[in-house]
Model the fold of this input.
Amino acid sequence: MSDPNLDTEYFEGGFVRMGPVDPAVAARFDPDDGLLESALVNLGTGMTKDGFVRLIDPGSLLPVMDTILPSKPGALPVFATAWGDLIVLHEGEFWVVLFRYGFYDDFLGEPTGYEFDALEELDVQETILQRSFYDQAVSVLGVPAIDECFGFVAPLSLGGAADVSNVARRKLKEHLVFLVQTGGAPRHLDEVSPSQ
Done:
């Protein structure tokens, strides 16, 4: 089912197609966000060649979104990282939610198509998306499947170590629910780390 190194107008570095997205779920996007709907319908789910950034099926997480991100009711999950963090669309703007650290922040504003390019930029992956030691985790555990993520066995919110010895492959939805149950729902970055 996967189609390695598929060239697309969305992820220029290559895209590994994993499966379809229900058109009814894709149709939940605002008509002004037609590029996203088109990407979800035409590409389906998949990931960049190295597996770090994923275009996910929003329907897989919709049943738990208001529980795991109550501050953004009705948020649509669009992208995920292999660390289990999400980029969601809420009220016409993108937000990045770093569940492992317990916060969210604005990402790129409204959808323009640039989000696909931005997500492939190593600088964005290393800073905003906190790629950290992803390559090291892959060398030990392999690339997580589209419905999986790397998760800290002892969550960071409970003092777990931020290194590969504390990482395992987890089911994405279940892991996000677990993180919120143990560490609370993500808060805005300004609440977590107020500006001086």
Remarks:
- The first helix runs from residue 23 to 26.
